[in-house]
Amino acid sequence: MTKLGILDHGYIRLVDVMGSDLTVVNAARVSYAKESSELSERDIRLIKFLAREGHTSPFRHAIAQFEIYAPLMVARQWWKYVIGSAHAEGSGDSLDAWNESSRRYITEEPVFYVPRDDEWRSVPESSKQGSAEPIAKSIGAEYSSELHQLIALGETLYDKAIADGICAEQARLFLPAYGMYVRWYWTASLQSVCHFLAQRLEHDAQKEIQEYAKAILKLIEPHFPVAVGELLSD
């Protein structure tokens, strides 16, 4: 399993992985010129110790690369973790790379995320951000329809601009942005991946990015079952 579908058109694909739980162990043991050839109970105890005591550098020797297709609102929230990974408290992690497709160069058919009638959510009473319970399906249906109409108008104007010779980097201004799907590669250390997961698997995270976080966890955990479990433990 290397690819999981998310939302209506989105997906995450695990492109490549470098390392395993043993990579973390040996990165730590090199301090004493030691190396393990296979994971033992002693090694597992070492991983638990490293995670518990915040000795995070060994977790940065394991790397994962993903291809992600998500609405722009998810991508921009995700990007905060790439920017912040080198400055997050106790992380010291700069092993992140992000390369995104650009509508300055491509004119492929745009794809948009439109919530289903029963997926629109209400404003929470106790916070100025986030969302609460679903709103009435009848109201959701109205706004799903309105959003489809807005997207159709934007696509019509975008196609017209392209046909009239307007450059792609300006024609894209007609496309409704936040729900439009974008595609990118994210390469990150295991520590950085788990930092993202720890934040976006929380119950108060935006639901759409929670779904992507769940997929990341499902794809990465089989490769680092001990390390992921310990880095995400309370």
UniProtKB/TrEMBL annotation:
Its EC number is 2.1.1.148. InterPro entries: Thymidylate_synthase_ThyX, Thymidylate_synthase_ThyX_sf. SUPFAM superfamilies: Thymidylate synthase-complementing protein Thy1 (SSF69796). The gene is thyX. The keyword Methyltransferase applies. Keywords: Methyltransferase, Transferase. It comes from the Bacteria. GO terms for biological process: methylation. This is FAD-dependent thymidylate synthase. Signal peptide: none annotated. It holds the Pfam family Thy1. GO terms for molecular function: thymidylate synthase (FAD) activity. It is an enzyme of class 2 (transferase).
